[in-house]
Predict the structure.
Amino acid sequence: MKTYISEFIKWFLIINTGIMFIVWINISRYDSIWTAIIPQIFSASFLTSIVTTVFFSINPRKPIRMVLRLLMWFGHYAVLCAIIMALGTYFNWFELSASGFLKLTLSVAGVYFVSFLLSYILSKAEADEMTDALKHYGQDD
């Protein structure tokens, strides 16, 4: 349970950063921001972090073929789009139209990319640290 909570917090921070970045791009043309959007962003981050934590906690015993892995990633993306669409409709973030749907899917893709990039950077730094520790393991300092 402790691992799940720490993974949730990690994904919440990563996804929230991604959402804030995409929102900043989308609202930078306005003079002021609507203050009610901040708790709305946190609710979107919270719900999508739950789904993402569950998605990444699935650890099959056997390797998964690339086609199945891609289908899983697409399913994850589709669920995230559905969550954001439901929240977007509830919070009136966008209009229910073809252009609104396109903006939504592109925004989710942008958050997905930023989150993937941040996750990769953090994981690489952790892997490099472990590699260095293993190289020096058992050596007298």
